[in-house]
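re: that chain from earlier
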Amino acid sequence: MERLQDPGADDRGGKAQKRSGEITRRRIVLAAAVRFAQTSYEEVTLRDIARDVGVDVAHVHRSFGSKENLFAEVLRATFSFPEVRARRNKDLVAAFTASAFDRNAAGLGVFINSLPSQQARKALRAHGLANFVEPLAANLPEPASERAILIAAVLAGVRLVRDVLGDEAGRFGSSKVSRPLIEAVFRTCLGETSPSERQAAEAHSPRPVRSATKSGAARQAAKRQGGRGPKGPS
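^ sequence. v structure.
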């Protein structure tokens, strides 16, 4: 999950680029991400975002055109996993687990706070399918889509439970206890189960049962063979 950083944080030299339109645009996206991660979609206004950045609201309108467009830009900036596009499955377990337990990851906060809004859900669905579910499923074993959707559900669910119940809500609030369990879920969904997990799954798998017809036929053959007795020397 991408974490937004103040684009001016590394520009200590006060270069002219810091005041460029691109830097201001990125600051607007950063401020909007913070707002959408903490407040419902309907309650966020462009005027509030402009005030947070220190620009006129007309500048926000000129840069993005509408709140819907700005929200879509926030999703692209915050709710993405570079490992998915790069098809680095070996890095995804760590990336997904870290995101699920990172309270400062803006993307999941934006996702959860925006769910009640019908308008925001349209953008969430379009972005989630195009930038998460579909590229992730393209590199997963079947049933690929179901695996990718389950991963998204676990990511959102863990964040939601932690936000609602807090760290005081039993053992789940302790990453030392719950982190290995979540990692195991992600590994299973990605088809990356460990040897111990495969052995446990095989131990609980039903053993094949020979058909009664075949077993009966084998018994009849053995009886006929036994009835003939051993052949003596000629």
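The first helix runs from residue 21 to 38.
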